[in-house]
Amino acid sequence: MGTSLLLLPLLIGAASADVNVRFTEGFGHPETNTWDSSCRGGAYRAAALTKAAGLRIDGGGVAYQCGSDTACAQVFASMGYDGWALNADDLASGSLDTFITNVGSKPVLSNYASSYTSTFANIGGAVLLAVADGGTTKYRQAVAVALTEARNAGIDFDTTPVILLVSGISTVDIDDLGGINAADAVEKLAMETADVDLVIATGISGLSTSSYGEGTNWAGERVYLVGSDASTTVQTMALGFNDGTGAPSSMDRDDEPCSESNYDEFIYKMIYGNVDTVQIGMLCDTGAAGREECDAGRAAFEAINNKNDGIFDDVLTSTKLEVTVASFDGNNCGLGASAREAWRTDLAAANPVAVVGPGGTTCVKSVASNSNRQTLASYGLRDDAVVISESSTATVASDRSIYPNLARLVSTEDTVSQGVLAAFQKYGWTRLAIVYDATDEWAADTARVVSENLGAAGIATLGDKCVSRSCATSESKSDHRGPKKSIRFDKADPHWGNTLISTDVADSILDELVALDAKIIYLMIQPSDTKVLFERIYQTKKCYGAGHAYFTGWPSDQMFLNDDGKASTDAAYGAVGLLTVKERQDTSGSVAQALIAAREGSMDETVCAQNDYVNDGRYCDVDGDASTLGGGYGPFVVDSVITLAKALDSLSSSSDRQNPEKIYEAIGDVGRAGFEAYSGTVVLNTYKERVGSMAIRNYQLEEKAIENEERRLAVDLTSTSLADKVVANIVGGQWVPEAGMSIIFPGGTTKVPLDRTPESDDGKGKVDMGLILGLIFGLFLPILLCIGVGFYLYRRKKIEKSRKQKATIQQAQDELQAFKESVVNMRVVVEAAAPGGSAAENAPPAAPAKWYWEESVARLTAHAVVKPPHWIPYDDQTSAQLEAARAKASVGGSPVVPLSAAYHANVLEMKQTNVRTGFSRALLRDAPPPPKSSSWFGSRDAPPPPPPLPADIDADERTCLVCDVGAILQLAKQRDDGWAFGSVVLAADGALSTDPGYGWNRNQGWFQMEKTDVPTADQLAELQKVLGGSGGTDALATPKYWDEVKDPTVVEYFRLDPRSPATRDEYTRCVDAFMLTLDRSKFRIHSVDRVQNISLWQSYAVKKAATCSREDDPDKAARKYVRAWLFHGCPSDVVPKILQQGFNRSFCGKNATLYGKGVYFARDASYSTFPLYCAPDAQGVQTIFLVRAVVGQWSKGVKDALTPDVRDAARNILYDCTVDNVRDPSIFVTYHDAQAYPEYMIKFSQTTQHTGHPKAGLPAHRPYRCLYRPNLVEGIE
Question: Is-contact 436 524, C-beta < 8 A?
């Protein structure tokens, strides 16, 4: 017995528990009790809870014991519980709602509908559900609804454990569950719910409270049942998930007693009323983006106040920060002093010693300047409170004689302007148009700083125009600092009448920009005004698209959100390519990661629409990503909170923590030393302003990309979003590009815009047409009248035709734009990659292309060299120049080559043009074919070197993709080191089809992102043609029965529930197809998952369209050449690779070569379920995929063949696949990875005893023979 006790800790550690639970329930004493025995005192229980890491859960009873005692509720709130539930006693309490309000977070009770409770809670490592006797809904129904709501909230039950608390059970629920008694009913509830992993039951007679039960639910997955009595100790449970199935694999439980020598100091002081309380204010802007940023700060305050959550537990150990929030309208800080008025009305009762916020210098001025502080003092409020701003950058606010006790957690505009200057110097821009709000203190100061700093570098600021009726109201003020060289408007003008710019003002701004020929534009206006301007840019197409570059000085999600929090798609489209110069952030540190993890379980989009700030543990989040905080200055709100907390913590006495002067001095001390905060290291200068560095960020319209730096906005643009991506950093004043990133300018192009329109023809050499026309009209007026009538009729016809053509062109452009939005993770090759290295180093040597121009027959004798019949060669240097231009034009570069002052050549139109007369001649390019590929690799005795891949890529994946310039690729996954795995969806012109040799593949493999770029509209137009011409989007559309895809860049799978009306038919369809050639009595289905991988689906869709478009009737070809489904069985270690990368021959074609070296698919599941191909895991579970495949035309398979046979020798076209039997194929072998898509994944086990090798072509079992069809989803897609 002694040996067993010694081994117990080792066994618990060996269980590799993924979830540790520390559980309490039903204590017979309030939290404010001071006794240590039986954990009755809250301070002792809190200490026992924190003895080891784990999720802290309370099962109920606290509300009943505390009643309406506010102190008791606050003590409970400070004990660090991750989730808590209610029991029958709580429900019967008459002060339940009051208790919940005082706690500040919602309890979980799935069977009790109330605005004070939640049906489930994401508690940061698990999902918590709870049912209790006395609720309003039956247990079975309540659990089903709670799981559905959790799933709809984006929780993945395959990776997130589910814990269900059961507190008592009524006879109604016992009967409903079909139980013979309470214990039996709870066991049935546990076993019938496939997604629940652990059930903790209290108050259930018949369940042992000293051990645990183990069972298997209907899906064949393990579930544990614990009968708990946690009313006198903290009970611990360790749930292990170490067998790779996604279901729990082990369970350990124990008790953690309380000790009189071990208590929580903070809770102890709270109980005795000895906690130091500091009043703090927050000034938060209205709107969804402002709410999300504010709530990020509130969550940080909660983490600091919670002394038991592992975050800042050693900061302010005896101090509580009492936070009061006041909302203000950021658009009305200047005229309406909205921030100051919010302080005066909403912060008056607290009269805080420090305030976090507001953002923006105009708003800061309204509360932090001497004159405004005196106004606050006149209402009996403090005039010396510390103000910490997260986003004020104007240099004017650096004057501490005017703005005392002000700290700013971002760098000033002097630093920002250096980043703007670096961009201008990189791209050679020398002209800048500034648009600013003369009313706004920040905007005016920023305009001045940027124009002065860039002007010193020789960059001219354009224009001098006030677009409102007058700008005199603001410009006449003594403290106005804005420049006249600019485009500006004045909201203080008596005729303005609105807090936002109107469409008329926006149009006036755009008209002036057009008149100035402004191409590089800096907007120094508030986000809500920026939204209006970009809406008009998109709607009017003025200053829109390629040839422009925009900067904004105030980035925020509010630029794209309407007042109701919904997206303005016009603003988003208008802002594509927008650049910002913003404080550099690094959230990889421990502080940021801990806060992100804590925020994960408290995000709630519904909170964003609320006007009041309720302490219920829920915080606004627009995009469902805990790492993004409002898309603007949210990280610096959190930095402000941390800065204040560290400053307060450094003060030794409670009296100093009530003294604003001491607090401000402490901020300087901790800032000079530097410390880790949310956005990285914070260092402050002597003015208590951040000393940081800048990053260049770029708003790009595309699918949610893979990099962690980007911000996905909540802007619904069909299937795309606006991503705020870091593209460069400013280091020492120099532009340092972010690895693997490119700037996308307006118009979706990487082509750098010029800062002016190229000069037009100067008019020299033009004929005086007025004189000639006068003579003609004077001499031939009668004739001209007739000609004029005829010309009018002709012209009218031409105009009508032109209108129709323009409408057609616009329709095509709209369709192309929709198509561009629908594609996911596509890149175009801009630098070749081939065996051994780059194309320049390793391509077969070839003679240079020779270029010619067409000469008139009469002048041929004047030339020494003529290529028949009439081509004159350029010299070698000019030929090389034209060849280089052709290569650049293929990836979006300019096709125009200036040959001389008089002649230009266009290598795409193949014309040479006299720029003065407009006369053109044809061009000819003569390129000899490259040598045979065998010379590329040398002799058989000298094979090429292996591909230059990173060493940690698996051996069966070590294949490089041959990249031809102009080819369009689709990513399947991307690594942090710049390597990505993908496939070719559109081959480049002239791409070879020969075997590239060892370690290389022409269809799918690894490549370097730096050799690719985002495809231009013209390049995607070629892909659009492959997909059926105009439109093309429909060809990429996913099946209509798919669920909404939350992240198109990663694979998602959706469990089909045979009991759910939503998925019952789909589940049955899959299982019936699987069982067509199987004996149902010998197979057990564990799960059926639908696989949704947008990148793989689009690769398959392109291949399908290309294959079917070869035939006269593509629809008929689709019915003939497409199979849904074929089957593919595989070992469990290959499953994740197939889900992410598809069917790659390197890891899917190992088991058979009888019909060729490709990927094998079977018509019959009886073949693919054979353990030889579909190896079971340690638990005997096998995996098979139901596969959509475009099999095309087939030929008889040949052992070890690398490709199918030739179908059309004249055009060098191969068959699409090989088969076992040409007349009635049951085995299909594909050779292009995009030919197949893994649509469903079935996990199963079987009792069949297999011997030998599987047989192909077996007949279907009755009664299923009549059910077989090549396409089982036809008509329901």
Answer: yes
Neighbours of 1213 (CB within 10 A): 13
Q: Residues of 753-779 as b/e, b for ≥16 C-beta within 10 angstroms?
A: bbbbeeeeeeeeeeeeeeeeeeeeeee
Distance CA 861, CA 856 (A): 10
Q: Which DSSP state fits 557?
A: G
Question: Model confidence over 295-342: pLDDT tens digits?
Answer: 899 989 988 988 777 788 888 888 889 899 999 988 888 767 889 999
Q: How far apart are CA 688 and CA 392, in angstroms?
A: 12
DSSP state letters, 1240-1254: EEEEEEE-----S-P
Q: Measure the CA–CA gap between 1176 and 56, rounded to whole angstroms.
A: 37
Angle separating helix axes 139-152 and 182-192, nearest 10 degrees: 30
Beta bridge partners of 327: 284
Alpha-carbon span 347 to 336, nearest angstrom:
17
Strands (E), 958-1039: 960-961, 968-974, 979-986, 1000-1001, 1004-1008, 1012-1013
pLDDT, tens digit, for every residue of 958-1002?
A: 788 888 888 998 888 888 788 888 888 888 887 777 777 767 888
Structure tokens at 947: 């591909």
Q: Which two tokens stand for residue 594?
A: 């801990």
Q: 61: which strand partners?
A: none
Cα Dmax for the chain: 127
Cα 507 to Cα 446, 567, 607, 704, 981, distances in angstroms: 23, 22, 35, 32, 46
* Partners of 873 in beta bridges: 852
Beta bridge partners of 200: 165, 226
CA distance 663 to 656: 7
Tell me the helix, strand and coil percentages in the chain, rounded to 5.
Answer: 35, 25, 45
Query: What span, in angstroms and rounded, lies between the C-alpha atoms of 164 and 262?
Result: 30
1260 class by beta-carbon count within 10 Å (0-12 exposed, 13-18 middle, 19+ buried) = middle
Q: In whole angstroms, what is the distance from residue 464 CA to residue 515 CA?
A: 12
Q: pTM, whole model, 2 decimals?
A: 0.52
Q: Given a cut of 80, is residue 897 above it in pLDDT?
A: yes
CA distance 816 to 701: 14
Lowest mean pLDDT across 367-376, 869-878, 1254-1263: 1254-1263
Q: How far is CA 458 from the centre of its chain?
A: 39
CB-based burial, 662-685: b 16+ in 10 Å, e otherwise: bbbbbbbebbeeeeebbbbebebe
d(CA 981, CA 961): 8
Contact yes or no for 419/696 (Cβ under 8 A): yes
Which residues, including other chains, have CB under 8 Å from residue 260's CB and lie 6 or more apart? 36, 37, 44
The one-character DSSP state at 826 is E
Burial of 849 (0-12, 13-18, 19+ CB in 10 A): middle
Which tens digits make up the pLDDT trace of 1012-1036?
Answer: 888 876 777 777 777 765 445 566 7
Q: What is the mean pLDDT of residues 1067-1084?
A: 88
CA 135 to chain centre: 39
Which residues share a beta bridge with 279? Answer: 322
Beta strand extents in 1131-1215 (DSSP E only): 1159-1162, 1182-1190, 1194-1196, 1206-1208, 1213-1214
Distance CA 850, CA 867 (A): 11
